[in-house]
Amino acid sequence: MPDVKHFDPDAVLDSAVRLFWRQGVDSTGVQDIVTATGVNRSSLYSTFGGKRDLYVAALRRYVTQRSQPIMRRLTEDTRGLPAISDFFDGLITTRCSGEYARWGCMISNAHANGENDDPDVRDVLHLHHDQLRAAMRTAVEHAAAAGQVRPEVSAAAAADMLALLAYGVNLRSRAGAEPDTLKETVSATISLLAA
């Protein structure tokens, strides 16, 4: 007879995302996970494996549910520099106000906390970075097609710069940077590209 789960694995994974996002993997113990999810250790282990496996699953879920929809919107927005500005405005608003204020980005936190020694974590971080950079490049290419950027601007280099700026916004917001300061930095960076 198959083992019947008395909990919703998706709900548990959502709780794990919030816990790891807020605290980081090193500061989160198995008892923290048990307390946050309401699921006992043996059920967690049999469903997700150990803490490391749960963390990798949580990172993947974060990318799928939180990062990819935002990057997809940026890719599909053909306005160029205004789309990039709106992306950063939304990022700053999310990072500095509301339920997840001052949590930063789970992906940026993983980069900063040195969790990329694990090959599975590193794969998720690389995937996220490649997708972010590709979305930024598409937006810069839309801007170039509309004559919004200087002709000598490389779309690839600009995309790298903007992706790194997004990580910086995420980390600085977690450290308490004021939204206006972050917005000034973003505006100054975008103005370097503008025609």
Morphology call = elongated
Kindly state the number of beta strands: 0
User: What's the CATH C level of the domain at 62-193?
Assistant: Mainly Alpha
Query: In sequence order, what are the helices and strands, one letter per element?
Result: HHHHHHHHH
Mean pLDDT: 94
- Helix share, percent: over 70%
**How far apart are the first and last residues' alpha carbons, in Å?**
68 Å
Q: Could you explain the architecture of this structure?
A:
The protein has 195 residues and is mainly α. The protein has a domain at 62-193: Tetracycline Repressor, domain 2 (Orthogonal Bundle), CATH 1.10.357. The protein is built from nine helices and no strands. It has helices at residues 9-23, 30-37, 41-48, 51-76, 81-96, 106-112, 119-145, 155-174, 179-193. The longest helix has 27 residues, at 119-145. The protein is elongated.
Descriptive key words:
195 residues; mainly alpha; Tetracycline Repressor, domain 2; elongated
List the helices and strands and how they pair.
Blueprint: H1 9-23, H2 30-37, H3 41-48, H4 51-76, H5 81-96, H6 106-112, H7 119-145, H8 155-174, H9 179-193
Helix pairs in contact: 1-2, 1-4, 4-7, 5-8, 5-9, 7-8, 8-9
